[in-house]
Please model this.
Amino acid sequence: MSPDRSRRMEAASKSMQVILWRVTELDIRSTLSKICRKVTHDHSVDELARKQRLRALAILGNAFLDHGQPLDSVDNISLLLQGSAFGQAAGMGQPKAKATQAVEEEK
Model:
């Protein structure tokens, strides 16, 4: 394979990874929105239970934000995808622990 073709394939692969990540992110946001609405508007439980659910969602949300990591580069997205179930199925190899460790080291 020529060096030029190899560079183009690598660039296309990174672009595809970014697209996959963005689609996954949108899906997660949509799912979370639906879950939050259902949990907070469930009239089969009393108001106290709904308030407790809201507090639990706030705790989970804050924990998520405190431990999340920005994925501001294609390389970080690539490493995370390699460690995901999708990456394993796609033959991207690298175990999840190694992928997340590599992202942590970049911080």
Observations:
- The first helix runs from residue 3 to 40.
- DSSP finds five helices and no strands in the chain.
- The radius of gyration is 19 Å.
- The CA atoms of residues 86 and 92 lie 9 Å apart.
